[in-house]
Amino acid sequence: MKSYTEYLYFETKKPKDFINITHRVEEALQKSGVQEGLCLVNAMHITSSVYINDAESGLLHDFDKWLEKLAPHEPIENYRHNLTGEDNADAHLKRTIMGREVVVAITQGKLDFGPWEQIYYAEFDGQRRKRVLVKIIGE
Amino acid sequence: MKSYTEYLYFETKKPKDFINITHRVEEALQKSGVQEGLCLVNAMHITSSVYINDAESGLLHDFDKWLEKLAPHEPIENYRHNLTGEDNADAHLKRTIMGREVVVAITQGKLDFGPWEQIYYAEFDGQRRKRVLVKIIGE
Amino acid sequence: MKSYTEYLYFETKKPKDFINITHRVEEALQKSGVQEGLCLVNAMHITSSVYINDAESGLLHDFDKWLEKLAPHEPIENYRHNLTGEDNADAHLKRTIMGREVVVAITQGKLDFGPWEQIYYAEFDGQRRKRVLVKIIGE
């Protein structure tokens, strides 16, 4: 069994952002040399997500608006977590909706994807340095 | 390490549907010959889900109603994604709530499930041909 | 390839509860002897979750309040599932938001975690005996 580990670093200029990381995961896969296996991609921070969906700017706008409705940033004092001095309780909830991780099949040396699947990093409490883990196991 | 890949095809008659696919995943597992490992099952399309929950018709009704409340189909023009000519923005959101994938442990040649766990394919933009991937690795 | 399987048992005193199980997963990992691989941790029951987020009591309170808003327990008769004699339809929905499982990378014999990642068991229909599965594969 082979295994391969890579960390991707992000520091978004905006508090919230969506970044297509498919190509970076494909690069990691090539470096791994794995032909058949599984690829885990996860946020290593608890106010950001890794998820799979469409690379379409309108949809990214819809996600952002929808998440703000389901887990509004304000009023900040509505969240007990924010009594710690943080103002990012909503970011923990938004990340919960979008998910921490994806597991992708590797078949014949490639991410085994449907036609529109793209891997995104979603930031909900940005402007600070954060990491994503890519872990590949297989043969 | 063994690996096994199988694609399941679906074309639902209704726009939205819930299909119990546990038996089909069990058949794939038998073909794989894997005794100890992991089984990934994921939607390969971004408007459908694979999830694990109860095979109870009342609950399927509740899921449908609840998802329609959290991510309503209409008004269609409320979603910027629908400006592309699609009317399925809500399906992308519903699939996000229900999830893209499940990872199931394989123990002694069987899906290592609790008493009520069943694997479902959830369609939110059907009436077209779609795929689910079953990827099994282990020994 | 090595594999290791362990079942964790829970019987919460309260109907809803959040339990930090990171240490128990770390113990399972040590027993497994795996240095590089993947660790699946999943609820084996369909009204509870395993998720990764912050070990901060204010946030746990916020999760509980937020889930009650997104999927209220009452009125019980609003859910068709509850016609079966159960009153836990909301617990199935809450578990869907929080997720069934996490997959964690194992690197150099440890859970490869960011600074705040902690594994939680979330119970939404407690006061009965339930199980969580820890499945580790790797080398």
Plain-language structure description:
The structure is a homotrimer of 139-residue chains. With 139 residues, chain A is of the alpha+beta class. Chain A has a single domain, classed as Sandwich (Jelly Rolls), CATH 2.60.120. In chain A, 25% of the residues lie in helices and 36% in strands. Chain A is built from three helices and eight strands; from the N terminus they run E-E-H-E-E-H-H-E-E-E-E. The first copy, chain A, has helices spanning 22-32, 57-70, 89-98, and strands at residues 2-10, 17-20, 37-43, 48-53, 101-107, 110-111, 118-123, 130-138. The first copy, chain A, has a five-stranded antiparallel β-sheet with strand order 1-8-3-5-6, covered by helices on one side. Chain A has a three-stranded antiparallel β-sheet with strand order 2-7-4. In chain A, a hairpin with a 2-residue loop joins strand 5 (101-107) and strand 6. The termini of chain A are close together. The relative contact order of chain A is 0.39. The model of chain A has no long low-confidence stretch (mean pLDDT 98). Chains in contact: A-B, A-C, B-C.
